[in-house]
# Entry
Amino acid sequence: MEKRKIAYSAIQPSGTFTLGNYYGALKNWVNLQKDFNCCFCVANLHAITVPQVASELRKRTFESYALLLATGIDPNESLVYVQSEVPAHSELTWLLNCCTYMGELSRMTQYKDKSQRQGKNIRVGLFDYPVLMAADILLYQANIVPVGADQKQHVELCRDIAERFNNTYGKTFTLPEPYFGVSGRKINSLQEPTKKMSKSDENQNSYISLLDNKDTIIRKFKRAVTDSEAIIQYDPENKPGVSNLIEIYSCATDKKIPEIESEFSNAGYGDFKLAVGENVAIQLETLQKKFHEYLSDKGELERLMKMNAQKAESIAYRTLSKARKRLGIIEIKK
Ligand code: TYM
# Structure
């Protein structure tokens, strides 16, 4: 039998997850479990690249883990763990730092955006973040990395670093490819539909949190920015607001875009927005119920975290050890 390929991805436990995280990443993660050996990580070391309140970060790490399980990730089949529980991530980051160029990191658009928002005293961690992300992916010898469009550049950099390492020191890492779902690779803000929907947006009407209740979801969709044409047609360039809603409806119902356009060919924006809101709310209701069940049993969450971290550690350590040897780092048996 052919060996299954490996899918790896991660999410930061900062703020609540949005519909963008769900449709751009998590929903694909769940579907990939059928055909791939999957590794999913709550990336808490990534979260501290910007200032965090310790008690909040601890709480969100548990919540994020529970949310991953609630989406349908099976902790007995897939590897689902917390990044800081596997120290190999930090160590490989250092080894890869010594094979990464300043120029490469300076070109990352997410760094440019985030550092601009931070103003002064930008942390080295924020600059170095793509190298930590590369270490995550490479430790597990991933073939594909299911992410939203905003992470494509980071996955490409990871591939470049891996290729350089392999060419210089000998084959050590598998070269990964970014993977996108059919729809949802970029879910946009409901208020500024040419911008990515983001949990760090100050305007709460711009994003749907996975924990929003039905009334809030419907209200936010009702207020979504559209245009004055009253035609439900997919045209991201000229009709970004309506196209974003069509994309969201497609992710919520698994219907194709032409099918949606004909379903609503005689409808107005009000009816369409209500249909989008209702379908999203139905989907999230089931997810929220499971989330609260998982979160109410902290003992079980800790058991699953520990079991998965142990498995992750042994896989990660194998790759780390290989990389150390290639670089001439001695390993004395203790
Ligand atoms: P993060 O936590 O910002 O987002 C998690 C995933 O959600 C996707 N996403 C979106 N997709 C579509 N539309 C949107 N509006 C939207 N917003 C977010 C992101 O593309 C991502 O796939 N650095 C990563 C986490 C990470 C990682 C990794 C990912 C750490 N190590 C290794 C892959 C592999 C991040 O900050 O994602």
Summary: The chain has two domains: 6-180+297-327, 204-293. The longest strand covers residues 6-11.
